[in-house]
Amino acid sequence: MNERLLTRNNDVPQSHTLSVYRALGGYQSLEKALEMTPDAIVEEVKKSNLRGRGGAGFPTGMKWSFMPKNPLDAAGQPKPKYLVCNADEGEPGTFKDRLLMTRHPHMLVEGMIIAGHAIQANRGYIYIRGEFVFEINRVEQAIEEARAAGLLGKSVMGKDWSFDLVVYRGAGAYICGEETALLNSLEGKRGEPRLKPPFPAQVGAFGMPTCVNNVETFCAVPTILEIGAEAFAKIGTERSGGTRLFCVSGHIERPGVYELPINIKLRDLIDHCGGVLGGRKLQAVIPGGASAPMLRADEIDVAMDFDSLAKAGSMAGSGGVIIIDETACIVEVAARLLKFYEHESCGQCSQCREGSHWLARMFNRIERGGGTEDDLNMIAEICSNMAGQTICAFADAVTGPALSTIRKFRSDFEEHVRLGRCPKKATDHYHGHHDHHARARL
Amino acid sequence: MTKPKITFDGQTFEFEPGDTIMRAAERAGVDKEIPRFCYHPGLPVAGTCRMCTVEVEKAPKLMTACSTPAADGMIVHTQSEKVRKSRAGVMEFLLINHPLDCPVCDQAGECSLQNYNYEYGPGTSRFQEEKRVWEEATTKKLSDRLTLNMNRCIHCERCVRFTEDVSKTNELLMENRGWKKELMTADDLGSFNEYQGNIADICPVGAITFNDFRFKKRVWFLKAHDSICDGCSKGCSIHADEEKNVIYRYRARRNDAVNGHWICDEGRVSYHTYMSAERIIQPLLRGHGQSVPSATRWETLVPWLLQQLSSASKVLLLIGTDATSEEAATLLQVMPEFVQGSLTIRSYNGTSQGFRTSNDDAALDSLLRRKDKTANTRGLEQLGIQAYQEQQDQGFDLAIYFRSGRAALPPSPLASTEVAWGVFHQQEVERFAAVLPGLGTVEKSGSYTNCDGVTQSFEPAVQAHGAANSVKRILDGLRQMAPNVREVVHGHV
Amino acid sequence: MIIDETIRKQIDALRPHFPSEQALLLPLLHAIQAKEGWISRTAMQEAAQFLQLPLARVVEVVTFYTMYNRQPIGKQHLQVCTNVSCFLRGADHLVACLEKRLGIKVGETTPDGRFTLSEVECLAACGTAPVMQVNDDYHENLDEKALNQLMDRLEKEQRQ
């Protein structure tokens, strides 16, 4: 249960520096990797059953194997391949990549160099959300150290292969966590998701074959090479290997990042974190970041791996676990989440642009006591007109909180309608919609 | 090599490798079964409105026809339950913030939102929130030629893509993201491109309207006639929309061999030449002691002209390079009959100083606009008509200028007696001894050969106005002379 | 000239890493904002010229991303997260405290130009909620007391 792999050195002072990282065994996996063929590395990662830790949970080895071996352009010249790290960590409830970049930036660097070797790229970009100024500094420092030590540059560890990394700073857009929106942002454009196909492995950054992975995914790679794919796969389930960095927040005694086997039961995870804040009664849990459908207090006997949570009607997502106790108003939580989605929709697709706005307004009105029975009956249908019909999964994500709350906590909604106000508040103190984007024309 | 095949609603068609489902549907002639807002055959694919989704067998989700590559053996359903539900969903989402402007909106009658809502929409509204309202929505000018009503915008962004990829002038952008996306100009009413009317054409709703046409006529009263723009040597295909013999606007007519999907603004508003109140549509003749020609009748003017033609020693007939090839051929053939002295027939362009032949023509931009502001320079060249040359062609006592309306006039008189024949306006006629009102492009049949050598024929869109007459009738009148001059009747072509 | 030698050097250092000029736009805008505090129309025009992009392509980027300020803001930008985890741990109360203390509403700047108050989305520090970012710095585990201490310190720093 206390198997810590990525975070085993969390409390070592200066763990972010090259010298300490090396002293703790860092870059030995890279040394090993450079003696392996690219295909061999991909096989190892496949065997480990590592699945993407950003939220989609796509098998990482398989993703790497999608990269074309020797892509040529129309003139018959070799196309450059790019590796991209998605460090946009924007999913509410998620804060693990921040920890990894702050304390273990070299782990990310090492993981990316190994991945770069596996897909035979020469250049990698680390797209870090704009608010992470401290973390950007840490990662840039690590890159500088790595360059100086010959771990990055024209000849990685003396080998005949060049690889370099550069940090790209985001500018405040949750949608840039979607891999194709990230690529557009990286190209200096609006962070709007792209139509797929073509997929990034064929047409990615700057039109070239690109592989995008999450911070934690890259950070797992040195560990996989260190302990071996089988050992990694042994932890977790048959289809989901390794540990996961769970982010626990909300009404919990000891919030924080906890590295645990990916198939830990939610109930056990909550206990591990000290239980509900102040010993209060649990009301609901969001198990995988804001987009994950809510679970009721009686639904927490579920394993936290991708397949188990999917089977339970929710998702493992980003690993952001948000605990909600009885003092909170579920309708208000839902309204708050929908306001987030309304703000972050890129606005391309009709259903998402208008639907996220509609649901946000409606939930806000219901929360304030202005809702009707008709409103409650409409929600599921509006959601059904949004999910599965847009360019990216954002619209589906919106329906996560909207549908799960109206379905599982209907009586709370009905109380709001019946009373004409929130039953948990004496007066209406909700702030409502603040339009603080510096130019409110509406 | 056999062509790949795709099935739409039970019918199988061939398509070209590389086609999207939408393109294959266009080839098959069934694309009208697939509604769309953001897709336009002349613009890059966006795939954002989500209206064109269709059901593809074996695909887990609905696919946007505009962006999904067609595959050999694909089976597509455009009217299934799932598709209809999706379309109703999109319609509902687009309508919740759309203002009930139909009664005052130009687009009514040719509005995609109206049409699709009628076909696919939910029928009722259940939106209880406040509609999104933009500041200055009802008064904002996008440019000097376009008006924007942002409330009506459905965010298809065709307009932005047009300025990015077609005119490549990059005036338009969407500010912000999500439900607050707002159409803006980059330079705040600075100079805008010469193809703005197309932007109003492609806007599927009444968000962007063309000021020249705004509030002038309800479109269901208009009848569309195929015609050719005579604004320059490109000869773009157009629709001339008229009601009761009055043209209210030109629109682009798709012609992949000439103008694609577009026309320029100058051409778009050139119908005013023919509809203007200043146009001369009655015969004019300068009487003794008069300084300007005044209204007369054909019965008076025809014998006068015949007399002039037969008594002059050196006659110049300038045929404007905007004449149809048929008119020019007829004039070439028949005019010598009436002249006793010498007759010199030359073409005249006058687009600019020294502009004489098609060799002087050039493109003005990378799209359509041409330097030559007349429609048939090459047509007249093909007939062997030489261009007027100032040094050689001199010493005339009678000069007749024939034109359809766009060719320029020689700046100074080329003879002591000058006669205008064709389309002229009040401010031009002071110098003429007589004016024979003729037909403009929209009032006659004929053909023009454009700058690329493409010959296009056209039929009249409207009947002649006033006493304007065709070349044939006038020449017949001249032939039949005094006793039978009554043959030339008012208002007949 | 807003894009001065320092900014040029910064962008020049990045240029070898990117196959397109346009990719340098986000870093360029960050550099401009670090210097000026906001992105003015003039700055956008300069950026467009510098990277040889149409102005429209610059404006649409500046307005897409929340972090680029389109108006000048106060010296200290108080950005309180009010997303779900921070909300559950009392973010609304912190906002109310700040509104009261500063005498402004969310979205506004104090008349003396010292503080701008904003509500922002998840800052990815949910484990230490509630969180406020002041300019570049995260301030975590805030309660009313800690907030007031922080504000006292910020006000003192500004006076010096």
Secondary-structure map:
The complex is a heterotrimer of chains A (442), B (493) and C (160).
Chain A: H1 18-23, H2 28-34, H3 38-48, H4 60-65, E1 82-87, H5 96-103, H6 105-119, E2 123-128, H7 133-148, E3 164-169, H8 179-186, E4 210-214, H9 215-227, H10 229-234, E5 243-250, E6 256-261, H11 266-272, E7 282-286, E8 295-296, H12 306-311, E9 320-325, H13 330-344, H14 350-367, H15 373-384, H16 394-408, H17 410-419
Parallel strand pairs in A: 1-2, 1-4, 2-3, 5-9
Antiparallel strand pairs in A: 5-6, 7-8, 7-9
Helix pairs in contact in A: 2-6, 2-9, 3-6, 5-6, 5-7, 6-7, 6-9, 13-14, 13-16, 14-15, 14-16, 15-16
Chain B: E1 5-8, E2 11-14, H1 21-28, E3 53-56, E4 63-64, E5 74-77, H2 81-96, H3 112-120, E6 146-148, H4 158-166, E7 172-175, E8 182-185, H5 196-202, E9 208-210, E10 223-228, E11 237-243, E12 246-252, H6 265-268, H7 272-275, E13 284-285, E14 294-295, H8 298-311, E15 314-320, H9 325-334, E16 342-348, H10 377-382, E17 396-403, E18 415-422, E19 434-437, E20 446-449, E21 455-458, H11 471-480
Parallel strand pairs in B: 1-5, 15-16, 15-17, 17-18, 18-19
Antiparallel strand pairs in B: 1-2, 3-4, 3-5, 6-9, 7-8, 10-11, 11-12, 13-14, 13-19, 20-21
Helix pairs in contact in B: 2-3
Chain C: H1 5-14, H2 25-36, H3 41-51, H4 55-64, E1 76-81, H5 84-88, H6 91-102, E2 115-120, E3 132-134, E4 137-139, H7 144-159
Parallel strand pairs in C: 1-2
Antiparallel strand pairs in C: 1-3, 3-4
Helix pairs in contact in C: 2-3, 3-4
